[in-house]
Amino acid sequence: MILFYVAILVTIIVRMIISSTSFRDKEITIVRLMKKILCHIKSDWNKLANKPELIILKTNAIRTRLCTIIITIAFYLYIIFLTLPSIICILLYNFDATNETVLILPIYLNNFLKDQMNYYFTFLFECVFIIIITTIGITHYSMFVLIVQHACALFNIVASKIENGFKSNFSHPNNRNKFAQEYEWLVDIIEFYDNAIDFVDLMKLYNKIIYPFEVFFSLLFIIINYFYFFQLLSFTINTTEVLQKFNYIIGSMFVIYVYCYLGQKLIDYHNEIFMKLCQIPFYSFSLKTQKMLPFMIMKSLMPCNLSIKGVIVLSNLHFVTLMRISFSYAMIVYNSL
After folding, report:
1. What is the pLDDT of residues 154-191, one digit of tens each?
2. DSSP string, 134-176
């Protein structure tokens, strides 16, 4: 019964949000931001054409495509596993191949099983609702993986430029040419770093709009996870329900963790730039370059992450916080039943 009330609550909230004018404004803003993000990605590919750094972008693009394929397959496989028992039960019931008179739904609701017509209507509604929500989730999740992977690739390119620069040390017999090479190297790093930060700023604007929805659904999914986990520990459900609930727990927790892991990955790649700058042998460069490098180090010390006003940061620590908060809510709901 709790899933029934949760489904009604989510439907009402989504309906209220969709019908509001502010949501429509946000929807237009999200579309514009997505266009800017995609144009920024296309511009980065054009700038790095025929350059060695393009290999880094291609490597991350291959990973992103693989992740998107895995996400799509995993989500739709879960839909199949969720609806398959109901479909088999319907076929057996219509062909009189079973003695059972009770039909089951993908999301278990007792109140709708008294009338057969109500059952088919509810079954169709649940299937459509699950497919729509899953498709929206795949689209958003794939988009998030794409932009985070691209941002990580940009920071990786900056770190690679820094490392290749101080390793070569611009050894040239003519000091004037050496200074020119150092200046070109620094300007290239600064421009590419600023370009990466601009892309992360677009990500933050995009994440700022959708973050409340992410937190709401994450807490909802984790609360359901704990509720299912308590049911598994009670040993009061059959084998089919055990497998179904166990698959849901593993799948949803993996999706939420990967989401937080990507935020942590962005932080780690940005911190790598600071580490590379600290490894530069300052005294092997010209005096002018030595004066400019501290400013680069100070700039790399500024935090770069996906956060809401710098308070809630998407990271591994945020995942632990979500688990702790949702556990408290789950205990309240479970003890009240």
Report:
1. 999 998 888 887 766 555 555 667 777 777 888 888 88
2. HHHHHHHHHHHHHHHHHHHHHHHHHHHHHHHHHHHTT--SSHH
